[in-house]
């Protein structure tokens, strides 16, 4: 470990934590507690707990997340079925303070791997138009997969924020900005963060965050809310950043958050740390003056494709929907979608592809919560069939030839194609595991 960086970190901790610094340093040697978030968009709390087979414990900060006490979570059915999302308590907290009334359009600008989007999508109405963006394409792919696993529909993109600033000014009722930061609050969990730790790095990140905040501001509708968060303690990235922002943008005000800590120096914001039995997280919620106005935006052009329409008619019970394509990929949405020009990874619900004049449905289509109850052919797996399916095996089922949604305890898992009594396994190879 880099001793010079560690010394700087300890010096800064003394500055941030004052009389609590010794306690903080003691807590640095205690083990980190990991947690999971309940995806109540997919199932009720009781249904979720029925499928949790590992030990867990509640948190005094939230009733939507729980600490887990062993590491088998990734192999649990609750995880595979998208009923839970592994996420530490402190990161699941910021969105809980957002009043979701009057939100019609929302964007998460730095969304990967998806925690905050998952939290807020759990609370937003299904008719909200939601964009989850991350500039890093590989991370945006993980974001897309996480949203898909939880069955949460969103437009997923990998664009620069400038793109949105230049094309969608003033459009959003909610902007989430969970910025890249120096990560002081994660050093207990990932000590290697210290390798990059320096005053220069904090300055560079603070400068970058200031630009991102100014771009985020441009996206806000009147009355729009901006959630800013970091996982660091540095004033330049946290309180001072917000003070500078408020001075620059006089039409922005802080929404006062409950007092949960004794270390932050800007009233109304929250700075969590191991003193709260969490890792570090700073959060500030801001609102722009004025009354929200309904803004016009360009809709994506719908397409008509007989092959895809026939597939929908044969397999789904829906009348009103919007159909889109990006080259050979087809997407369905239950609401009209905004036109985004490029770098789209998902556009509502990914339906599938046309290959050799045949339509091949996709896994995403069979995971979406908004299509719950709308599949014509559903097959409920027993425990043995669940294990076989998740391992990639074919199943023997006597029923009519069709594509089937496969459920376990009524929760969608994936799909297969039944032909002459053999169900071809369509569970994505990357998700399979040997049971
Ligand atoms: C703290 S992480 C976000 C975590 C995420 N909000 C969550 O809750 O899971 C910061 C993210 O910002 C992304 N990022 C960095 N610079 C960006 C930029 N200019 N525009 C958009 N995303 C950016 C990074 O790729 C990284 O995924």
How do the strands and helices of this protein lay out in sequence?
Elements: H1 3-17, H2 21-27, E1 35-38, H3 45-50, E2 56-58, E3 65-68, H4 77-80, E4 84-86, H5 89-92, E5 105-108, H6 115-121, E6 129-133, H7 137-150, E7 154-157, H8 161-167, E8 172-178, H9 199-219, E9 220-230, H10 239-248, E10 252-255, E11 270-272, E12 281-288, H11 306-315, E13 322-326, E14 329-333, E15 344-355, E16 358-361, E17 378-380, H12 383-390, E18 395-396, E19 402-408, E20 411-419, E21 422-425
Parallel strand pairs: 5-6, 5-8, 6-7, 8-9, 17-19
Antiparallel strand pairs: 1-3, 1-4, 2-3, 7-15, 9-12, 10-12, 11-12, 13-14, 14-15, 15-16, 18-21, 19-20, 20-21
Helix pairs in contact: 1-2, 8-9
The structure holds S-adenosylmethionine.
Shape type: globular
Binned strand content: 25-35%
Low-confidence stretches: none
The number of helices is: 12
Sheet having the most strands:
12 strands, mixed
Instruction: Name the structural class.
Output: alpha+beta
Q: What is the alpha-carbon Rg in Å?
A: 23 Å
Task: List ligands, each type once.
Answer: S-adenosylmethionine
Named CATH architecture of the largest domain: 3-Layer(aba) Sandwich
**How many domains, as an integer?**
3
Q: At the fourth CATH level, what is the homologous superfamily of the largest domain? A: Vaccinia Virus protein VP39
CATH class term of the largest domain: Alpha Beta
Mean of residue pLDDT values: 95
The first-to-last residue Cα distance is 39 Å
CATH topology of the largest domain: Rossmann fold
Using DSSP, what is the number of strands? 21
Residues in helix, %: 25-40%
């Amino acid at each position: 470990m880099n001793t010079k960086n560690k010394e700087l970190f300890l010096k800064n901790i003394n500055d941030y934590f004052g009389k609590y610094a010794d306690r903080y340093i003691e807590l640095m040697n205690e083990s980190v507690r990991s947690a999971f978030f309940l995806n109540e968009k997919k199932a009720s709390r009781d249904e979720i707990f029925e499928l949790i087979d590992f030990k867990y414990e509640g948190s005094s900060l939230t009733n939507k997340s729980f600490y887990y006490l062993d590491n088998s979570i990734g192999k649990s059915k609750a995880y595979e079925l998208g009923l839970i999302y592994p996420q530490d308590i402190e990161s699941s907290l910021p969105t809980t303070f957002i009043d979701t009334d009057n939100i019609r359009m929302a964007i998460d600008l730095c969304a990967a791997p998806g925690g905050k989007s998952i939290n807020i999508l759990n609370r937003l109405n299904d008719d909200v138009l939601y964009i989850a963006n991350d500039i890093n394409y590989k991370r945006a792919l993980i974001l897309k997969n996480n949203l898909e696993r939880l069955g949460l529909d969103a437009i997923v993109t990998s664009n620069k924020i400038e793109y949105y600033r230049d094309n969608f000014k003033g459009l959003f009722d909610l902007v989430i900005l969970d910025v890249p930061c120096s990560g002081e609050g994660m050093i207990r969990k990932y000590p290697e963060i210290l390798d990059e730790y320096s005053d220069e790095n904090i300055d560079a990140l603070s400068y970058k965050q200031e630009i991102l905040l100014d771009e985020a501001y441009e996206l806000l509708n009147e009355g729009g809310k901006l959630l800013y968060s970091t996982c660091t303690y540095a004033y330049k990235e946290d309180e001072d950043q917000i003070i500078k922002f408020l001075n620059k943008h006089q039409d922005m005000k802080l929404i006062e958050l409950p007092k949960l800590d004794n270390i932050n120096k800007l009233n109304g914001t929250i700075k969590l740390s191991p003193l709260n039995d969490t890792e570090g997280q700073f959060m500030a919620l801001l609102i722009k003056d004025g009354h929200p106005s309904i803004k016009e935006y360009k809709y994506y052009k719908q397409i008509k494709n007989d092959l895809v329409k026939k597939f929908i008619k044969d397999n789904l019970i829906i009348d009103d929907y919007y159909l889109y394509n990006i080259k050979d990929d087809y997407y369905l949405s239950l609401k009209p979608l905004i036109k985004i020009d490029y770098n789209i990874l998902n556009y509502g619900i990914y339906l599938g592809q046309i290959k050799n004049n045949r339509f091949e449905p996709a896994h995403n289509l069979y995971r979406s919560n908004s299509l719950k109850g709308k599949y014509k052919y559903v097959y409920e797996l027993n425990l043995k069939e669940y294990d076989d399916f998740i391992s990639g095996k074919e199943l023997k089922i006597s029923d009519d030839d069709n594509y089937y949604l496969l459920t376990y305890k009524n929760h969608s898992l994936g799909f297969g194609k039944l032909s002459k009594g053999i169900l071809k396994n369509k569970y994505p190879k990357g998700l399979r595991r040997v049971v």
